[in-house]
Every structure is written in C-alpha cells, then in structure tokens.
Design goal:
The protein is α/β, with parallel strands linked by helices. It has seven helices and 13 strands. It has a single domain (2-245), classed as Survival protein SurE-like phosphatase/nucleotidase (Stationary-phase Survival Protein Sure Homolog, Chain: A, 3-Layer(aba) Sandwich). It has helices at residues 13-22, 66-77, 98-101, 103-109, 131-143, 213-218, 237-245; strands at 2-5, 28-33, 52-56, 59-62, 84-91, 118-123, 154-160, 170-173, 178-179, 186-189, 195-198, 205-207, 221-228. It binds manganese (II) ion (MN). Residues 7-8, 38, 90, 92, 103-104 line the site of manganese (II) ion (MN).
Length: 247
C-alpha cells in the first residue's frame, strides 16, 4: 500500500490527479491536510492534538501540516508501514530554494525512514491547465520505480511543466538551482486600520543554467532531482578544520 499526501489540502485537484495515477499501480491511502498548508515545510504541530477525519474508505483529513500527516500515518495511524510515500501533485513549481519551504517536498521527506524512495510531484503553474497530462507523467514515473534502488533517505523531487503531454520533451536528471531573494513583503492595512503584510512571491531564478531543475522545466522537460535531508556543508570542512585547529 502507498501513502499519498500533499500540502494543497485533501480537496485539491492535484491530489485527485495523483490518486488517479497511483491507483492504477497500487492499493493506497490518502492522509492529507484539511486545508491548504503550502509553505509549511517540515513543521510538526506540537501545540495541539491532531484530529483525523475519515472522509471516505481511503481518505483521511488532518487538522495539521503535510509533515504531520505523513508522520501520523507512519507512526501509528496506519496498521502497517506503507511501501512508499508519494506527495502532490502540487499546484506550483518546487525548484531550487522552494524545496526548503515546500510542504509537498516535506511530506515526501517525512517518508525517508521507509525502505522505498519517496517521491514529490509538482506542476509548474499555480493554476495548472494540464492536470491529466501531469498525472500521466506521474504514472509513468511511478510505474518504473520498482526496479530503482537508491540509498536510504533519498527523496525524488519531480517538477512537471504545465504542458500537454505531447509537448513535454522528456525527463532530465537535475540538481537544485537557486533563487535570488524573494520580492519585498506586501504591506496592507486591515479593516481595523492596522498595518499588516503579505509574504511576497519567491525570488527569480539566479542559478538556473544547464543541469538545474529551473533549466529543465523552462525548456519543456520534466525535472527529477534526488534530495536528501543531510544539510551538512561538506565543502567547508577543510577551511573549518584549519580555523578550528587555531582556536
Ligand atoms: Mn502547495
């Protein structure tokens, strides 16, 4: 059985598309937030209990974050470990720095303790036009996973261009690029005259050359980036070893 999750919420069209793809390949259960929790990253809810509403035979809605959903599912809600965690399909790209903020990616990362590689899917539009095409891409990728053996704690971050299937040129193995700083926060005045702010949109791509996730989707390819949760900056070790030796 596969565990399906997302960050756009239990009623999101992208989750429906993922269910359409996954249900052709495996038995499944959906555990997803009861509303949109985009941008929740790896947050766990520690200040209130999590409540689970069974929506139908296979779907559960949780009053928590995407990470809560997967954490809850694999640490007690489900009678046995799922064989795989699949997250998405997110409305909006998760490229470069987005992976830090993304609840879609985080839900997959929370499945890193399981034997099989977890996968996060996103489509590169906030208002996608081609859900069925994206679902077909997800189906093809998921149907090939049985033969793939990656090291433990690996997650695949998949970004799909919002294009008809016939216009998608293929699949590229990529690394994360990175973005410039986000746009400024948007100041507003609330109905009671108090100043408030909206967080602005993500920054423009800064490292988006050949080989990056940005480059692949901009050129009509599906981007597949292997991720892991180890944030250690290994290439600073020699500099830091020298510095620490002198302390
Ligand atoms: Mn989202």
């Amino acid at each position: 059985m596969w565990l399906l999750a997302n960050d756009d919420g239990i009623h999101a069209p992208g989750l429906k598309a993922l269910v359409a793809a996954a249900s052709r390949l495996s038995d499944y259960v959906v555990v997803a937030p009861d509303g949109n929790r985009s941008g929740y990253s790896n947050a766990l809810t520690l200040d209130k209990p999590l409540r689970v509403e069974q929506v139908d035979e296979r779907r559960y809605a949780v009053n928590g974050t995407p990470t809560d959903c997967v954490h809850l599912a694999i640490n007690g809600l489900l009678p046995a470990d799922p064989e795989r965690v699949v997250s998405g399909i997110n409305a909006g790209a998760n490229l470069g720095d987005d992976a830090l903020y993304s609840g879609t990616v985080a839900a997959a990362v929370e499945g890193r303790f399981l034997a099989n590689t977890a996968v996060a899917f996103s489509v590169t539009s906030w208002t996608p036009s081609y859900w069925e095409d994206a679902a077909e891409v997800a189906f093809r990728l998921l149907s090939s996973l049985d033969t793939l053996r990656l090291p433990e704690r690996t997650v695949l971050n998949v970004n799909i261009p919002d294009l008809p299937l016939a216009q998608i040129k293929g699949v590229r193995l990529t690394r994360l690029g990175h973005r410039l700083r986000a746009s400024d926060v948007e100041p507003i005045v609330d109905p009671r005259g108090r100043r408030a702010f909206w967080i602005g949109v993500a920054g423009e791509p800064a490292d988006s050359g050949d080989g990056t996730d940005f480059h692949a989707v901009a050129n009509g390819y599906v981007s597949v980036t292997p991720l892991h949760a180890d944030m250690t900056r290994y290439d600073t070790f020699s500099t830091l070893q020298g510095w620490l030796a002198d302390l």
